[in-house]
Design goal:
453 residues; alpha/beta; 7-stranded mixed sheet; 5-stranded antiparallel sheet; 16 strands
């Protein structure tokens, strides 16, 4: 793979100048950022105007599950634009119906009705609204180590520090500790202990909050941004039982973990659990056009058979977005993208990351599945002290910044979150590309090693 354009630094400078003059970036202090100007992308790579090529181990923001510029998806969007570029959501449109059918075909259990949104945060907002209206209750429980989006309810549900500036403490959200054996809040030493104690903690929280006040529990099936912490055996099944016991709606957030990322169509398949509502976005169409949604079970859908659902979006089920979803899902089936993700995780990426951990003292733990992995970087393996403090910035974050800079100099674009680097390439990444990425990680981890005790 080589850049498809000749290096043109002058054009890149113009792009960056226009960006700095007019674009307001998310999650950033505007005067402190220096965004890379992108000239093009294809497959697992992108490149800048200076001709530097990067293997994208972040998949954009963990959404380019079929890589960049897949020709069949690009063609489908172009064809749809020529046929019917847009239409209001209250009408039946063929491509919208087909996208909903293909998604429902892959969701577990009876999650057969699809409400389309523009992305994951809106999907979470509407899933919570549905749960509250269905139960007549208001509270929603979510985990501290979580991310559910940046809109009003979604940001309150989020467990990481991005919540803090926008947390009104009035959204009816209660946080609890979900299982994470490597940094167990329950002093557990085995997965069985962690699962049992986490479930007891959740049930205790419900008891003290009042079961009859709780509309829903929302969990990322496999928490993504928070650290790719695969839940221990029995935990999600236990949450399902608790929800059934108290009449609580169980929402699984599969925005990041869904559509092949874990080596299954949905991560819930690994755990044999069917939620009442499931949110999705990102991988449903690899982010080619903004799209998300809620998959709804029969019981909750029936709540709104005679009662209007008080929610909607101008671009719900936008034809261009749905066309990209239909094409993406067909490509994933035809090219066995989900199977490739499972193979890469089990036979190439997982073993490769564990081999790096054996040689680099900065790696405290390797965890993940499919093409959804994290390296927990530490100062000391014995104490498990993180390489940088929680929510570090500036000089305190220098070790992780040095790690990331080294990765980029070696042609790898990493996803760095706090003291972790996530290895989340495209689901159709090749073995050769993964090995290229592992070599770049090897070099970058040598820099992280310099900060270990």
């Amino acid at each position: 793979m080589t850049p498809h354009v000749e290096p043109d630094p002058q054009a890149g400078a113009a792009v960056k100048a226009a960006d700095r003059a007019h674009v307001f970036h998310s999650w950033s202090a505007q005067g402190l950022i220096d965004p890379l100007a992108i000239a093009g992308a294809e497959g697992s790579y992108f490149w800048d105007y200076d001709g530097n090529r990067y293997l994208d181990f972040a998949s954009g923001l963990v959404y380019t599950n079929i890589g960049y510029q897949h020709p069949k998806v690009v063609a489908a969007v172009q064809e749809q634009a020529g046929k019917l570029a847009t239409f209001a959501p209250s009408f039946a449109v063929d491509v919208r119906s087909e996208a909903a059918r293909l998604i429902a075909e892959r969701t577990p259990g009876d999650l057969d009705k699809i409400f389309f949104t523009n992305g994951g945060a809106e999907a979470v907002e509407n899933a919570v609204r549905m749960a509250r209206l269905h139960t007549g209750r208001t509270k929603v429980l979510s985990a501290y180590r979580s991310y559910h989006g940046a809109t009003s309810t979604a940001i309150n549900l989020t467990g990481d520090p991005r919540r803090w500036p926008s947390d009104t403490a009035s959204a009816g959200v209660v946080h609890f500790w979900s299982p994470f054996l490597y940094r167990s809040p329950f002093y557990a030493t085995t997965e069985a202990e962690e699962s049992a104690r986490a479930l007891q903690h959740l049930e205790d929280t419900i008891a003290f909050e009042g079961p009859a006040t709780i509309a829903a529990i929302i969990l990322e099936t496999v928490p993504g941004t928070a650290g790719i912490m695969t839940p221990p055996p029995g935990y999600l099944a236990g949450v399902r039982e608790i929800c059934d016991k108290y009449g609580i709606v169980f929402i699984l957030d599969e925005v990041m973990a869904g559509f092949g990322r874990t080596g299954a169509w949905f991560a819930a398949e690994h755990f044999g659990v069917v939620p009442d509502l499931m949110t999705f976005a990102k991988g449903v169409n690899s982010g080619y056009v903004p799209l998300g949604g809620v998959a709804i079970n029969a019981e909750i859908a029936a709540t709104f058979d005679k009662r209007p659902y008080p929610g909607g979006l101008t671009y719900s089920g936008h034809p261009l977005a749905c066309a990209s979803a239909v094409a993406t899902l067909r490509v994933m089936a035809e090219e066995k993208v989900v199977e490739n993700a499972a193979h890469i995780g089990e036979n190439v990426l997982g073993p490769g990351l564990r081999e790096l951990a054996e040689r680099h003292p900065s790696v405290g733990e390797v965890r993940g599945m499919g093409v959804f992995w994290a390296l927990d970087l530490v100062k000391n393996r014995e104490t498990r002290e993180p390489l940088v403090p929680y929510n570090a910035a500036g000089e305190a974050n220098a070790p992780m910044a040095a790690f990331a800079d080294t990765a980029k100099k070696n042609g790898l674009w990493p996803l760095v979150s706090m003291n972790r680097t996530h290895a989340v390439p495209a689901c159709n990444v090749s073995e050769a590309e993964v090995k290229e990425g592992l070599a770049a990680l090897d070099a970058a981890l040598s820099v992280a090693d310099e900060h270990t005790a």
